[in-house]
Amino acid sequence: MSDSAYSFLEFGSIDPSDSSRQTWDFITGQKAYEWLMVARYLNDLVGYQTLSKVCKDGDIGEIPKIYKAEVHHDDDASINLNKLVGLSVVQNSDGVLKFLEFGSTVFGCIEGIRFCQDLLSHQFIEFKNVDLAEIEWHGIDNSAMMNSLARSLHQTNKIFTYERLDDKTSHCDLFFAKGVSLLYQIRSTNEFRQIISQARLSLFDYSLSLSGSTNKVLGTGKEIQYLDLNDAINVIEALNDKVMMVRLSNTRIDYDKNRLFLDAAFGETPLVNEYIKEDKRVRGAIESVDKSGTIAETILHPSHNPSEGWVGLREFCETHNLL
Is 221 within 8 Å of 9 (Cβ atoms)? Predict the structure, then answer.
């Protein structure tokens, strides 16, 4: 066995009467990761289906309890709202809307986005119609199992899956990724440029090193790389027809680890500006119609607080003397 860290999954039982412990199965490596994460992602997916039904039945007072019990990450619905707003902004009448997610897993974001639509509809909040059945959903995930499940679970949607970035060559309208997914993939500034330039509008979070490119092995056994901040900015600014803005409520400096974590919107300037404007409007509307405050508190994560505003990446870095 390798000396490197690796993932494991153990299943068993404990008898409290005599404190005995029995292991029924012990799995390592990629299979351990898939067995755990597939179960978690499917639980989220079913949770969102339940939440959508609650909206349609008019029992939205149940949303906080169901969400807390069934959805793993407390910011997940807020992230899916980001995706819905992004899709509404890049809509056009001259072609099929194409969405690309890096780290798409089982494409449970479709159920998450549908729940956001159902909630907005129930609350009578004005919003552009986004037909999820007509979107091309492109996903990149290195798990063949998850890609297969994504297609099987969404047979009424147009699902396209790939195991490698190089397998996906055509551009799309909206790109989304969480930072860990990007950190697994990106090994150079050229790959960084290639990925964020995949779409007219890209929404992602990412971590950059303040002291040169560095590598790290995570507890999962997977190695990630943090690109140098200055190198990343040079790549971004070379794409002079596009702009990168960072969300101030979710962009922060970790001086102990010498890293910058950023929550970004990158793309054509009019689209980025429209996205920021629409995101603020929709979140404000959810807060204003929710008199109890419990729905807004559940769905609108504080890390996506529009009142704190957005700023260009270079401006943020210069303000904090990072360059």
Answer: no
Domain that holds residue 279: 8-198+268-298
What is the pLDDT, as a whole number, of residue 79?
96
- Please identify which residue in the block is written with the tokens 């012990």: 26
C-alpha distance across the termini of the chain, in Å:
43
Residues of the chain with pLDDT under 70: 1-3, 93, 167-169, 219-221
| b (16+ CB within 10 A) / e for 8-43 | ebeeeeeeeeeeeeeeeeebeebebbbeebbeebee
Query: In this structure, which long-range contacts are made by residues 65-71, counting pairs with CB atoms below 8 Å and at least 24 apart in sequence?
Result: 67/298, 67/299, 68/298, 70/43, 70/44, 70/46, 71/44, 71/47
- Asked if residue 50 belongs to a domain, the reply is yes
pLDDT for res 142: 86
Asked if residue 255 is part of any domain, the answer here is: no
- Kindly report the backbone phi and psi dihedral angles of residue 87, in degrees, each rounded to the nearest multiple of 5, phi listed first: -65, -40
pLDDT digits (tens, 9 = 90+) for 205-263: 999 999 999 888 776 667 889 999 999 999 999 988 899 999 999 999 999 999 999 99
Provide the number of structural domains found in the chain.
1
Q: How far apart are CA 137 and CA 84, in angstroms?
A: 13
pTM flag (> 0.90): yes
| pLDDT value of residue 219 | 66
* Residue 16, in any domain of the structure: yes
Q: Kindly state whether residue 216 falls inside one of the protein's structural domains.
A: no
Residue 164 near residue 187 (C-beta atoms within 8 A): no
> How many angstroms from the chain centroid is the CA of residue 49?
19
Q: Are 179 and 263 in contact (CB under 8 A)?
A: no
CB of 244 closer than 8 Å to CB of 233: no
Please report the pLDDT score of residue 299 as a whole number: 95
For position 131, what pLDDT does the model report?
A: 95
Residues 6+ apart with CB under 8 A from 49: 111
